[in-house]
Amino acid sequence: MSFLARCITQSGYRLVKEATKVNSVCQAAQTVRLSQSSRCLSTVPDNLLFRQLFDQESYTYTYLLADTERKEAILIDPVVELVKRDVQLIRDLGLKLAFALNTHVHADHVTGTGKLKKELACKSVIAEVSGAEADVKVKDGDTIPFGEHSLKVLSTPGHTSGCLTYVFYHNGKAVAAFTGDALLIRGCGRTDFQQGDSSLLYDMVHGKILSLPESTLLYPAHDYNGQTVTTVGEEKKLNPRLTKSKEEFVKIMETLNLPYPKAIDRALPANMVCGQYELPEETKT
After folding, report:
1. Lesser CB count within 10 Å: N end or C end of the chain?
2. Which residues partner with 60 through β-bridges?
3. Which pLDDT score is estimated for 29?
């Protein structure tokens, strides 16, 4: 059984049941791509619990990882409106949330880290260079422990100045990386706001993410087409932007002409203070 399939079996993984306006996305996202993840089977510990959760409004993936023996867990990129879901799941599984991590200061949703701190007494984590508030401010090369496991922090700016990728290693091999918006499935994050830099993003993705072993599973912060996971090998061959030369990539990013993010005016101020700025009361408590 593959890494992803085994984690799903252990944790009863399920994406969104109802989302009529994104029904096709959610249906497609439930398809597990076994052929990609089977290559990592021999490198994954039995005491790792994994969940991939989905927000149908912002198309954000939230990731729960835990040591099933010591019951310590971490949560990556929580969304404030779905904190109740996350808290219930963590309690149902008998876990203690040690850290709530952000891959960057998001512009499309408000982070749930502030609310999780109140609910579960965990510590929030963000990049030191982001300038945002958090209990733990990390930099390239740091590690974030949970039980006997840990994630290695890679600084991968370009989408924003404070973007991070979190890498899970086992027996010295990179098994999975949580890439935030730096690298998406067949795409990448935009670079036209929040100190974005196309040239830097290209260098960081190629130098730190696509340089990992080709079997490494890549889990993005978002997907808009119903996909859930990719690999380094796939993106090196199939990413329509990052397979180009650096000069071509920069030109592509300069001519995307994307609309102004609809949630940015609410999300950015809140996310600079751990998700607790001018939020509706029902999401704060």
Report:
1. C
2. 55, 222
3. 37
Number of residues in the chain: 285
Structure letter (DSSP) for residue 95: -
Residue 176 CA to residue 187 CA, distance in Å, equals 18
Q: Which stretches of 96-245 are assigned E, i.e. beta strand?
A: 96-101, 123-127, 136-138, 143-146, 149-155, 164-170, 173-180, 217-220, 230-231
End-to-end Cα distance, the chain: 41
Amino acid at 36: Q
**In whole angstroms, what is the distance from residue 283 CA to residue 14 CA?**
24
Write the pLDDT tens digit of every residue in 209-231: 999 999 999 999 999 999 999 99
Q: Going by C-beta distance under 8 Å and a sequence separation of 6 or more, which residues neighbour residue 19?
A: 25, 26, 56
Q: C-alpha 240: how far from its chain's center?
A: 21
